[in-house]
Amino acid sequence: MKLFVRLLVNALAVAITAYLLPNVTIDSFFTAVVVAVVLSIINTFLKPIVGLLTLPINLLTLGIFQVIINGAFIWFASQLIDGFTVVGFLWAVIFSVVLSIVSAVLGMMAK
């Protein structure tokens, strides 16, 4: 049950973030759920591997490079999912930052 609630909170965060940003579009709430699931899968399986491979540059930038990696994951997800459009890599990075903030606020309210 907790996983389902977290998935819905993340989908709502994706939908809100897409609404706030002008160059990011989502066709429906179902697409937001799909984006949340795909991002969860990417973060579960790819993020640890990429994080390990980019550890030296993350140490040099004090972790700020992780924002670029998150943007790359958003960009990758937008290429995979029909109905989820991100115009440019910069907007993917901005989406990643705003999504983190919105998700944190919604996560605190869901508890």
From TrEMBL:
It comes from the Bacteria. The chain crosses the membrane at residues 28-46, 58-77, 89-110. Keywords: Membrane, Transmembrane, Transmembrane helix. The keyword Nucleotidyltransferase does not apply. This is Phage holin family protein. It comes from Candidatus Roizmanbacteria bacterium CG_4_9_14_0_2_um_filter_39_13. The lineage of its organism: Bacteria, Candidatus Roizmaniibacteriota.
